[in-house]
Amino acid sequence: MVRTFVAIDLTEEIRERARESQEFLARSEGRLAIVDPENLHITVKFLGEVEPAQIEPIVEALRAVRAAPFEMTVGHAVCNPPRRPRVIWCDVRDAGESAALAREVDALLAPLGFSRETRPFRPHATLARVKEFHPSQCRDVERIPRDPLGRFRVERIKLKKSTLTPRGPIYEDLAEVAL
User: Fold this and answer.
1) What is the extent of the structural domain holding 131?
2) Residue 153 CA to chain centroid, in angstroms?
3) Of 43, 105, 125, 130, which residue is least crowded by CB atoms under 10 Å?
4) Number of domains in the chain
5) Per-residue pLDDT tens for 33-91?
6) CATH code for the domain of 154
7) In terms of pTM, does the model score above 0.85?
8) Which residues pair with 43 in a beta bridge?
């Protein structure tokens, strides 16, 4: 079985700015699992464990995506949910194109047996997962500069493989589809 998801990669510049926020987070009380900056992305659809034979049909379905390239802005770090967070992420804003892309990917993969998402799509880039909450964590997050991490043009999506290890996940690109 192969653990997979469809994603939008962030630019190196945005990842570097995110690293600065993560360095600040690493000093907070409680316990956080900081995401490796190289792994920062926006998940379009999590597929979970799939048979290796399903990879090519998934790639073929993704090649049918008809979305046009679009602009996204990666915001600053916030706690989610705000009172007792499970993750610290950066909200991502666009003019609705990422939600439309997620719906299209959902529709294209449904015939292959992947359940449609029932929750509204909310694009974000996870900086850290909260393993042990401490009330100071959200105060610390609010001290991180509030400037957006950057703006970039989304021109492709990727099918990624995720291998879970004790040191964190290792991601590998399985396919890339141009918009």
Assistant:
1) 2-178
2) 16
3) 43
4) 1
5) 999 999 999 999 999 999 999 999 999 999 999 999 999 999 999 998 887 889 999 99
6) 3.90.1140.10
7) yes
8) 7
